[in-house]
Amino acid sequence: MSSVTIRVAHLRFTARFEESAAPRTCSAFRALMPFSQQLIQTRWSGEAAWVPMGDLDLGLAPENATSHPSRGDILLYPRGVSETELIFAYGSCSFSSKVGQLAGNHFLTMTSGWEQLSEMGTLVLWKGAQPITIEAA
User: Fold this and answer.
1) What pTM value is reported for the model?
2) C-alpha radius of gyration, the chain, whole number
3) pLDDT value at position 80?
4) What value does the mean pLDDT of the chain take?
């Protein structure tokens, strides 16, 4: 499985795993699939939505880590100075928390659905939590 389908409310995206750059993160996330949670607007990171995952310990270290994901990039922050979390950038993003800048493992890159990113941002910003599902394509 090299790609996934992502559903946020009524919107549909596809993404590919960054297998060569983040193999351990891809493997750990596959073990969580199908992944279903609530996606909410980030508090400190700009144009991104996030899934807080609390104390979940996936045993991951930084891998292909970035603080500045591009539009359509999905990061997994594997716990540390902040909780485990998933970040889905829909625009300009500087990944941060209440303790400052963070770097998350870039493990998924969106391959289709670009035209819906603005709508996704509007949904999470103005309508609140939205269901997100990530599963094998």
Assistant:
1) 0.95
2) 13
3) 83
4) 95
Token output for 53: 């995952």
What would the two tokens of residue 64 be? Answer: 């292909």
Residue-level pLDDT at 1? 67
Residue 74 CA to residue 90 CA, distance in Å, equals: 9
Question: Cis peptide before 34, with omega less than 30 degrees from 0?
Answer: yes
**Terminal alpha carbon distance of the chain:** 8
CA separation for the pair 42, 33 (Å, rounded): 23
CB 91 within 8 A of CB 47: yes
Contact partners, residue 10, CB within 8 Å, separation at least 6: none
pLDDT in tens, 23-71: 999 999 999 999 999 999 998 898 999 999 999 999 999 999 999 999 9
- Asked if residues 130 and 39 have their Cβ atoms less than 8 Å apart, the reply is yes
CA 36 vs CA 39, 68, 87: distances in Å: 9, 25, 14
Picking from 28, 40, 43, the residue whose alpha carbon sits closest to that of residue 132 is 40
* Amino acid in position 134: I
